[in-house]
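SUBJECT: protein chain
CONTENTS: sequence, structure tokens:
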Amino acid sequence: MGEEGRDEVARELRIGMMQLTMEPLEDILSHARHLDRGGFDTIWLAEAYPWWRLHSMEARSSTALSALIGRETTRLAVGWGIISPYTRHPIQVAMEARLSQEALGPDRLLIGFGASKIFMREAGIGTRGPAKPLQTVRESVEIVRAALGGDEVDYHGVVFDAALPALRPDAACPREVSPIYIAGTGPRLQRTAGEIADGLLTPSITTPEFVRRSRRNLAEGATKAGRDPDAIDLGCTIVASIDEDREKGREGAREIAGMYLANKVENIQASADELLESAGLDREEIRPIAEAMRQGGRLAAAAAVTDSILDRTKPIAGTPGDCIAAIEEYADAGCTHIMLELWGAEREAQLDLFASQVLPHFRR
């Protein structure tokens, strides 16, 4: 990339971390403090679901965590990446957003919605009739945006109804309408993000090729709605780890890639096909990873991720120089918001190394 390209990346690219909420609270808060001090832009809270109990991890609430992180940090933006509209009525989401705004302060909350096929399956949603994930997400965005705006809400949709009186001028609370993102793997949800959202979030195992597909879908939806596609943030979840030694710097990415490839075999199924196709992977090739995870847990799954498979997931991993090159490749593909799915040993030391050796390259 030439100097002009680097300057453009420095102006536009945000870099944060996708924090899995199946980790202990004190670990999550410690990560947030390191991100805040290190100059990262965001921490996204990936709401875990009960499936992870099979692998000795417990699900925790992203919305509750965001307020706690607000009391531990000073500048870091916190994103819900993602919550499912099937877990909370949009009015409840707006209530939780308002509390998070108070705890975080202005311009620090980002709201992410996604249908979450794994939650739908575990909750039995769609087994007794149509689940309407596209409509459910769309109506949730519309209601939450209206509720946070403070005007009277009288909404009657296909999935949700919502009625709220107008917020009185003397009410002691923020008046902010936080940016709302839609997570989408398939073209329909990605186009919907382009139509109505402030940003699109892609799932784990995103590759540069999948970024290009996502950017095209987002642009199609934005153009249909008369919006500027370039004004819509594209946040990409990318497996990551770092060390001064290249092989050590790839191990965390190997582990998180194994966890998510197993997850895609067991839970996400057809909706992951585009991700796998973009990475040049097929289900039969990654099925042994899922079997290893069932039999021996995430370390066994990591051992089943060959170098070839790891390379095709296009991680931001290895040495600081490797990570810089990978981030630039994602930026060139159209990603405007890197969400590092950072994993592996000595996570806080990894965050510090990213902060000291990688972030300055993109802050010129």
About this structure: The chain has a mean pLDDT of 92. Residues 219 and 230 are 8 Å apart (CA to CA). The chain is about 50% helix and 15% strand.
